Amino acid sequence: AVYQQIVQANPRSSDAFNNLGLALQRHRDPSGAMAQYKTALELDPGFVEAHINLGNIYLSQQSYADAGKEYQKAIDLCPQSVQAHYNLGLSLVGQTDLGGALNQYKEALKLDSKYANAYYALGLLYLGQNNAAEAIPALESYLSLEPSGTYSQSARENLARARQTTTASGAGGQVASPPSSSSSSAPDAKGTAISGTAASGEIK
Length: 204
Fold this sequence. Notes:
Blueprint: H1 2-9, H2 14-26, H3 30-43, H4 48-60, H5 64-77, H6 82-94, H7 98-111, H8 116-128, H9 132-145, H10 152-167
Helix pairs in contact: 1-2, 2-3, 3-4, 4-5, 4-6, 5-6, 6-7, 7-8, 8-9, 9-10
């Protein structure tokens, strides 16, 4: 209600529409949130956070190509956006472009070496490629940064499996499926193909 009042008082404020979209997303109204983000972008096509937030709605709906387009727009506007690179990686996993996803996760970590969820996503991506040697340090990095984080239990389970594959000949235990999450903290995945939590644009 507060953000709706702000929008009514400031009908030309892209920030106000973006914030209303975030509020609607938290109240599980993705279609309403999408409309607000689109309005924010009509008012300000260069609004990086709104592109990211709109991409997150698409990602939660498994519209991975559309999500990727919004994240790419955000990167074009702000190449230093860790969120946009990381989220683009999530959308590329959904499109089965694992090489592209790998590059985006690495770019996110190049920009912010303490971005824990990127290590987690990277670790699961390596495990999916049966590359335990690379998965182990990625998962260890996640756990060192987020020992009690959202994905800490899954990270520990997958780390144990990865270590088993490097110590036992022929051992190739199944990789645990990553947990799915919902859109307002933004989707990391609706479905098990994507790992990690997509970052949403902050309220200004």
